[in-house]
Amino acid sequence: MKKIINAKKRIGEHQLHPESLMMSYGYDSDLSEGAVKPPVFLTSTFSYPTAEAGEEFFHVASGRKPVPEGESAGLIYSRFNQPNVEMVEDRLALLEGSEEAVVCASGMGSITATLLSALRPGDVLMHSSPLYGGTEVMFRNIMTEFGIKLVEFHDGCSEASIMAAVQEAKSLGPIAMIFAESPGNPTNALIDIDLIVKTANLIETEQGKRPVTAIDNTLMGPIFSQVVPRGIDLAVYSLTKYVGGHSDLVAGAVCGNGDTINAVRTIRNCMGLNSDPHTCWMISRSLETLSIRMQREAETGLKIAQWLANNPHMKVKVLHPNLIEDELYQTVYAKQCSGPGSTFSFVLDAPRTDAFKFINALVLFKSAVSLGGTESLVSHPASTTHSGVPEEVRKDVGIEEGLIRLSIGLEHPEDLIADLSNAFKVLVS
């Protein structure tokens, strides 16, 4: 085994903030020729100090022995663990407030590892709706082929809605997982985290085994929302989005505690869903500015949402957390989120052709999928990210033909508003 590198979280009695720990936690420059920033460890395999140490490393890596307290698993092979990956995992766990994190090659890789860690043929997967389009396709088109039964709920803030889904799920088989996206993409629908935990505990009482709870925390976490400390088993991330933050990498992660996250790690390692050293080096760079980027983007996003809600050109419906006029929604929002994030949608009372005309008139906003980068993006979910979702499902969850999603970056808010204003002028001309 090896000692955890630079694991100090305090200076005397002072608890260091996560923003400060993003600069150094998990890295000792003395072990890398004094380099202030960690190098990229481009190696596929690692040597052991002795043959006996190699034997011990494999016992721990396979789960046959626990990791000794205050130590981490020895380095074996880059499909199992690797310095750049471990640094990102250590820092993500700090931000989420979990014991561990497991980095994967993509957000969908992290969702795949999460599902396969807990679901078996005949199990029931309860899930919120809407979900990211790739997740919808994974659930509906792939997991069902492996004998997984799906039951969805549309209102994650309503106990009645969730309990109705529980009753339906119980009639189909054992409920093995509750998976939700909060906020939901692209409508910003919220899930009451406390209600999900309460529901999982109730199911455990009735069926004797607690379903694994998982939340896709990509849109607000880990800065404005941390779900593991609230009792959720697994927080799922597309690191491609805000954590990576520069639209130049693809990666994912799962954060959690104890045996639940260890099961995810086992799937990740066995199936080769790992991220590479260079990508993780880039993520460690991005983590240093994550807090300040997300805060600035959220401030700009709120200004733009407020302008859209009162714009002089045409009336639109704005799906920004601060502007959704629902008392229960606002109660949940205030309880579990410290900020709004900067990805939200607005809805034109118009057909798809008008949405396209508006998007095509934009200059600063780039028409592209993904979100959370330094540049502002615009997309039409019904024709892109959610085009694989059946039309009737899109209608049920509010993904209308006139819905346009914005991801706000670091441009000046006045310039972004001018861009939107000009597009409205083109649309109404």
TrEMBL record:
Question: Which keywords fit this entry according to its UniProt record?
Answer: Pyridoxal phosphate
Any matching Pfam family? Cys_Met_Meta_PP
Secreted found in the keyword field: no
Domain of life where this protein originates: Bacteria
The cofactors it requires, by name, are: pyridoxal 5'-phosphate
InterPro entries this protein is in?
Cys/Met-Metab_PyrdxlP-dep_enz, Cys_met_metab_PP, PyrdxlP-dep_Trfase, PyrdxlP-dep_Trfase_major, PyrdxlP-dep_Trfase_small
- Family the entry assigns: Belongs to the trans-sulfuration enzymes family.
What PANTHER family does this protein's entry cite?
A: METHIONINE GAMMA-LYASE, TRANS-SULFURATION ENZYME FAMILY MEMBER
Q: What is this protein called?
A: Cystathionine gamma-synthase family protein
**Which organism was this protein described from?**
Reinekea marina
Its lineage reads: Bacteria, Pseudomonadati, Pseudomonadota, Gammaproteobacteria, Oceanospirillales
